[in-house]
Design goal:
The complex is a heterotrimer of chains A (about 325), B (about 300) and C (about 325). Chain A has about 325 residues and is α/β, with parallel strands linked by helices. Chain A contains 13 helices and twelve strands. Classes of the chains: A alpha/beta (about 325), B mainly alpha (about 300), C alpha/beta (about 325).
Chain lengths: ~325, ~300, ~325
Amino acid sequence: MGETENILVVENLKKYFKTTFGTVKAVDDITFNVRFGETFGLVGESGSGKSTTGYLTIGIYTPTSGKILFKGRDISMHALKRPKSMKKDMSIVFQDPASSLNPSKTIRDIVALPLKVHGLINSDSELTEKVAQLLEAVELSPERFMDRRPGDLGGGEKQATAIARAIATNPSFVVLDEPTSALDVSIQAKIIKILMNLQQELKLSYLFITHDLSLMRNVASRVAIMYLGKIYEYASARLFFHNPAHPYTRMLLSSVPVLTDEEETLKPKDVKSTGEVSSAINPPSGCRFHPRCPFAKTICKIEEPEFIMIEPEHYVACHLYTEKS
Amino acid sequence: MEKIRLFKRIKQSPRWESFRRRWYKFSRSPLSIAGLVISAACIFIGLFAPYIVPYPEHGGFFSNYADKFIPPFQSSKYVLGTDYYGRDVLTRTMLGFQYSLMMAGVVLSLVVAPGVILGLIAGYHKGTWIDMAIMRISDIFIAVPPLVLALAICSVLEPNIFNAMMAVSLMWWPWYARLTFNVSSAMRNEYFVQATEVMGASTFHIIFKEILPNCLGPILTKVTLDVGWVILIGSALSFVGLGAQPPTPDLGTMVADGGQWMPERWWPSMFPASAIAIIILGFNLLGDGIRDMFTE
Amino acid sequence: MTEQLLKIEDLSVGYKTYRGTSKVLNGANLTVNAGEKVGIIGESGCGKTTTMKTILQILPTNAVIYEGEVHFRGKNVLRMAKNELNELRRKHIAMIFQDPTAALNPVFNVETQLIDIIKSSGGHEVKKKEEFKDKCIGLLKEVALSDPERVLDSYPFQLSGGMRQRVCIAMALATPRYLLIADEPTTNLDVTIKDQVLRLIKDIVENRKLSVILISQALGAVKGFVDKVYVMYAGNTVEVAETKELFSNPLHPYTKGLLNSTPKLTGGGFSEGIQGRVPDYINPPSGCRFHPRCNYILGRCKGEKPPLIDMGGNHAVACWLCYKE
């Protein structure tokens, strides 16, 4: 794992929230890395900690412990403490397009803000030109949209604006937190296409967070699955979907609604979804998935499984596999 | 040609669009329109009273005992009658508008800006000592009953209309701090604020350029409703003798003066009292309408 | 037993706004027979919720019904008297909404709300208080809620999203009904819970031989569930066919675009989506409302609105491309 290969390295990252009900262990000791130019997918359901991981990376939360390294530099702190020059190198696109844009501002002001904050462009007319360029890159016609307010735009257009704002300072890394979950299917395809094109043109690396497995299959090069704050499997996309190892991965895949028969054959048949996600305040002991796992053994309740490699580019943390190896 | 083009451009700008949408919501309710008309009339009278009243000199030291206590609606010379000193009640009431609205104007100009700024700062730093410091201090002011505080201040200082305004201002600012705190602290965790923080924008920018524009709705509504409240409190102070002193034609003072001749000679009291009620009604209805404008 | 339960013909509904009237529904058609499961696919803003609200007459005050008829069991709903409407809502049709949190009253516990529904829908044989509670427990068991006693005592905020939706399903099916309308019942739920809830609705519906209208944007969810599918766009019914037929042989360009835009679990990248955006209902496009976004447009499409053309085998399309003299 050479340092020049990875744009982002996360080591033993933990984030605990103290609430009146107890300590929520949102992210509990995860380790992964994102390579230059790749799309790394983080998949999971609610309570898995995937969004929290994205927010930790970008600095919205301060890690409770653990390290985050961006291009080799330690950035395990809140955004307000990070050096300003770093902030223009990474950005985030949020899940809800409506609340990620200030309703009282025009699209021009919203997209121009990062440029102004970092002092990249100072003259007003140059700013307008650059904003027009950015809007065109996300397929929004500047004449129509520059002076509109977010309330006048549809969901897809708002998200496109959020993307334009995210790439304004020419970052090298973008966190995408469920960027299309709130959008219609036909718009989703358009936005994803825009994201993929931008990745090629601007040589971006993405941390792509979503719960939609069909979407993930088509965007990510490597995928990690999270459950109750821990990563239980990660692999290259092809191996993850064609040879899912962890029972939770298999359960999730079996629940995906699909249209064609060939997709149907890809879905695991041995696991059907049961039960609900437990509370993150008192997560189950040992392997957190054991209450819902049809293959749970005694050891699963006691000991947390370690990661083992079951084939190149495929790691899983599950007691079913530690014995076999 | 230029003018038409400029007009067309304004018509299509997003500001006009939001104004149109807001006006539509406002105009749905006939009561709001009524409020707008009444408030506008009150402001008009307040601004131009000295020029439109029939007997401007009756506003100061004046006596004409020959014409005293003429009942209202009987003589075309004194439409609303005269008081003990023979002064025209209509004139003095209209002049009273001026003092009432002046009080509202001065107090609110002094109070809104500091209150809102403190509320914004406290809201952005919710949960920290800054929030505690600002909001607990404003809680102290709020805890004292408003009239009591104003009375206390005015009785220590010389009773005049200026000091009454200062007293009311001192106990009015915390309400704006609290309102702005509530609105801005809720907004603080919205994605668009997080996005600007992560971007590296300065705290000043976030508070005043991102959060503040979205708080204007509730603040504007409160300002409008407060016109009525400030006038009421101010009149109450004058009523007990701590505000404007006679012969100043302040509405509260007039109600107090005329009180001793009630109920046979009701008109020197009742017309100023009705004027207070009408001003408050007008601004309340207008305030409701403005609240509707900013509600989705 | 092909008694026609619900028939909507040429329904046109609009809303009054500050900019004019937005004519959302422009001749929508729908037929549901007794015991039939019907799906409606369409993206946000296409008028599916407006149609459902018209059936139950729960449209907002600024709605205007221009023309069209809604017949339920032979009677015209649009002309029903107040007491007939009450009977319709309490005894004949049940509805499950998209957001279970918003559908439940936060200040009453589950037991109170369930009993409320049972009492007001009449037709129950229960007389004593204890019998009510037993009936409630029975209902909660039917929707696969473990520990029904605890759920009955709980307030909605104490339950998870999946549990709330199950409570809503229990409420909808508390008393016998003819028709169940499910408006995106699983959109706000996690993937594995989505699967469970859909399976649950399917089981209950088949056990009780209910008629169902399932509205969803998730094409896969609809596919595994319904017999017949309607595709709606911009307030029109643009295609209707039996499920298998629709997914294997879509005829309308919009349906084709929609199916293309759905990402596949087997990979294969993304399509371009459907260009353009949902029309402005204040100034809707003339003729076929899809024509500005259509790649196969004919001259006729701009001027005349295509009717639903019968293509045989219960498959109808509203598209001039399929019209043969």
